[in-house]
Amino acid sequence: MSVNEEQFRSALGRFAVGVTVVTTRSADGGDHGMTVSAFCSLSLQPPLILVCIDKTASIYDIITTAPNFAVNVLSMSQEPVARRFSVVDIDRFEGVGFSRGRGEIPVIDDAVTVLECRRTASYDGGDHTIIIGEVEEARWNDSGRPLLYYRGGYAHLER
Ligand SMILES: Cc1cc2nc3c(=O)[nH]c(=O)nc-3n(C[C@H](O)[C@H](O)[C@H](O)COP(=O)(O)O)c2cc1C
Fold this sequence. Notes:
Layout: H1 5-12, E1 17-18, E2 20-25, E3 31-36, E4 39-43, E5 48-54, H2 60-63, E6 68-73, H3 79-84, E7 98-100, E8 106-108, E9 113-125, E10 128-140, E11 147-150, E12 153-156
Antiparallel strand pairs: 1-11, 2-3, 2-6, 4-5, 5-10, 6-9, 7-8, 9-10, 11-12
The structure holds flavin mononucleotide (FMN).
């Protein structure tokens, strides 16, 4: 016997997480991105991270095949960006400042941390796919404070 969806959501919702936008570029030159909280550090040597992508996500085919992607860790002032990159059927980049990183991938302005990654492996993870990236470039902003997600809502650090 296993827990049901509601129990799973309630239990896991009590684990406070940071919020990222994973960005990439398709072979036809289109910019793509989605809000992702299922992100974590995986290995120091080599430097690996992982993100988990829903198999039904609109950019699933792009993000699971693109050679490169970036993880943009959002600051607490970027809640509108987190909301925008989780909305279906809009141009998510409209009105959002960004520059170009390796492979012309969009890198979101004012993120707390940006990790530019080369996709090295993908693994099945139930209704998600686990994507492993080797971090080729890392930048961070010491004055930025992170945006959090906790119990179904956005939150800020109090320290
Ligand atoms: C705070 C937050 C965190 C999210 N984390 C993930 C995640 O880790 N993985 C994922 O596949 N989708 C995640 N999503 C959902 C996607 O951002 C997006 O809403 C979903 O893919 C629906 O849009 P789409 O069908 O156009 O992709 C998250 C959404 C929010 C608001």
